[in-house]
Protein: Hsp20/alpha crystallin family protein
Organism: Kribbella koreensis
Amino acid sequence: MLIRTDPFREFDRLAQQFFGSQGPGTWSHPTAMPMDAYREGDQYVVAFDLPGISPEAIDLDVERNVLTVKAERRPLELGEDVEMQVAERPLGVFSRQLFLGDTLDADRIEAGYEAGVLTLKIPIAEQAKARKIAIANNDGDRKQIDA
């Protein structure tokens, strides 16, 4: 099981309701690292939107079943004669944490990055997969059942 956590998401939602969509500062922009997560066979797939971020600016860590994704979007390097007219894209370091249940194999996570999307594939641990168990009856016959 994959559990998403973002301790400030509820605070941001309440602040947006209170101040409105044109609220002050960073409260007015949407989540900087939106994600989708789904189960596909014997693995979970998590996709993070990280447009404009180089692969070198992405950091993945797993510690005690907590997966942390950090990404840094740096300002554009503009020439001296350039005057910025609109700057709406959020800059800085963004972070998301996912709690990986004991049924997932954190040692075998695969990561890929293409077209601004970071995709993680997290396999289900072998001990958590369904398996057949043989049941012996009094006649010595064995019958397979799903566990």
